[in-house]
Amino acid sequence: MKHLVRVKFLILVVSLLSLLSGCGYNTMQANEEAVTAAWGNVESSYQRRADLIPNLVEAVKGYTKHEAETLKAVTEARAKVGTMQVNKDVINDPQSLAKFQQAQGQLSGALSRLMVVAEKYPDLKANQNFLDLQKQLEGTENRINVARERYNKSVQIFNTSIRTFPNSMTNSMMLHLKRKEPFKAEEGAKVAPKVKF
């Protein structure tokens, strides 16, 4: 009789373990780690851009004595981004992510105005230091875009993994993981710019 109880107990344990392997616990954990890693790449790309800005501003300063307002706007936007306390918890708070995205958008706008100003100065456009910085900035903007796309993809995979069966049951009973917010288009991006000739 004891032998039969042990066999039933072992069958129960093996059955429970096989159920746990299909519950999605490890998958959800791995997907959340992928989101965190992708977010780190986004932050790294934005930091690279922030590090380039002082050199770019200095290169432009010498040529653009009359563009102090634009230089000030770029410097202030970078300072605002620099004062934001950003950590991995930003991805768990939609309002914090929106503030982060808004500050980065303001910096992008200020940089765009700086590049337009640079077009007015042929000597600046020919300056090798400025050209190198401009290429680095263009490459960094591309990296930011790629990092954001990868982050959004990892968020999609994570969000799907916590909402589909049987993972959703495991999440509601054990983990209580929340949806992550993807990057969204910045305000005004839905309206095409008007070009006048």
Summarize the SSE layout with pairings.
Layout: H1 2-21, H2 25-61, H3 68-83, H4 94-119, H5 122-126, H6 128-163, H7 167-175
Helix pairs in contact: 2-3, 2-4, 2-6, 3-4
Describe the overall structure:
The C terminus is likely disordered. The chain starts with a helix and ends in a 22-residue tail after the last helix. With 197 residues, the chain is mainly α. It has seven helices and no strands. It has a domain of 134 residues: LemA-like domain (de novo design (two linked rop proteins)), CATH 1.20.1440.20. Helix 2 packs parallel to helix 4.
Please report the total strand number as a whole number. 0
CATH topology of the domain at 42-175: de novo design (two linked rop proteins)
What is the CATH level 1 assignment of the domain at 42-175? Answer: Mainly Alpha
The CATH level-2 architecture of the domain at 42-175 is identified as Up-down Bundle
The average pLDDT is 83
Distance between the termini: 94 Å
Please provide the ordered H/E string of secondary-structure elements.
HHHHHHH
Structural class comes to mainly alpha
Task: Give a quick precis of the structure.
The chain is mostly helical and 197 residues long. Helices cover 76% and strands 0% of the residues. The longest helix is centred in the N-terminal third of the chain and has 37 residues, at 25-61.
